[in-house]
Design goal:
- The structure is a single chain.
- It is globular and about 55 Å long.
- The protein has 256 residues and is α/β, with parallel strands linked by helices.
- It has 9 helices and 9 strands.
- It has a domain at 86-246: Aspartate Aminotransferase, domain 2 (3-Layer(aba) Sandwich), CATH 3.40.640.10.
- It binds pyridoxal-5'-phosphate.
Length: 256
């Protein structure tokens, strides 16, 4: 049985593809950087502003109730998608960069000189710089898993880097540079044996692979809306409840 994609039907979902660029119908290949937005998503945003725009969790009037219900419904949809145990483990952010910085800032209180954190050589800048800043602040040491000639993580080297000093491991699920799918199951299992927490950058994986955070037993999983046909400026941080309770608040404010 063949599963042919009806290209015209898919294109019809994306209003932007009906415009011309430089006199030609638009063909868009930069989805890994920012995907285009289907009509259903655009409609939902317009409906929000036209029908029930209000302050969530802050008002007792009808619009605020409706906005709060829609917001919590979205959180429940995401909880189910990632199979998180609890809705409270799904945190809305402004994107992957924000989610990583939120966790890195939280860990400033958990690390001390002599501790080690492991990152891979295959990371987006968003998953390197926050950890460099964290290490500078705490005196912890950053260790890097090298890459093989075929663009995969050198897992032997990873096993050698892991030790009782390792407190955190950060790796992307799918590399934005090479498309490599990293063996995160092994990385998570091995890191946990040393008592280290694991953050997985799922920005490139989320549009293609459905991550089950409970099956993976991952501590943190971060994604961006704008790379998975969602709106720009929205992201998700999944955090295991026990870790969320351990980390101090990143920002102070209402409903923190
Ligand atoms: C795009 C990307 C990021 C950063 O995402 P933002 O939405 O810009 O915060 C981080 N990691 C990977 C792997 C990415 O592809």
């Amino acid at each position: 049985m063949s599963h042919q994609i009806d290209i015209e039907k898919v294109r019809a979902d994306f209003p932007i593809l009906s415009r011309k660029v430089n006199g030609h119908p638009l063909v868009y290949f930069d989805n890994a950087a920012t995907s285009q937005t289907p009509k259903v998503v655009i409609d939902a945003i317009v409906e929000y502003y036209e029908q029930y725009n209000a302050n969530i969790h802050r008002g007792v009037h009808s619009l605020s109730q409706e906005a709060t219900d829609a917001y919590e419904q979205a959180r429940e949809t995401l909880r189910a998608h990632f199979n998180a145990a609890k809705k409270e483990e799904i945190i809305f952010t402004s994107g992957t960069t924000h989610g990583i910085n939120l966790v890195a800032n939280g860990f400033a209180s958990q690390l001390k000189a002599g501790d080690e954190v492991i990152v891979s050589a295959l990371e987006h800048h968003s998953n390197i710089v926050p950890w460099q800043m964290l290490c500078e602040k705490t005196g912890a040491q950053l260790k890097v898993i090298p890459m093989t000639n075929s663009g995969e993580l050198a897992m032997d080297a990873f096993h050698e880097l892991l030790s009782d000093k390792t407190k955190l491991v950060f790796v992307n699920h799918v590399s934005n540079a090479l498309g490599t799918i990293n063996p995160i199951e092994t990385i998570i299992t091995e890191a946990h044996k040393k008592g280290a927490a694991v953050l997985i950058d799922g920005a490139q994986a989320a549009p293609h692979i459905k991550a089950d955070v409970q099956a993976l037993d991952v501590d943190f999983y971060v994604v961006s809306g704008h790379k998975m046909c969602g709106p720009t400026g929205v992201g998700i941080l999944y955090g295991k409840e026990e870790w969320l309770n351990k980390l101090p608040p990143y920002q102070g404010g209402g409903e923190m």
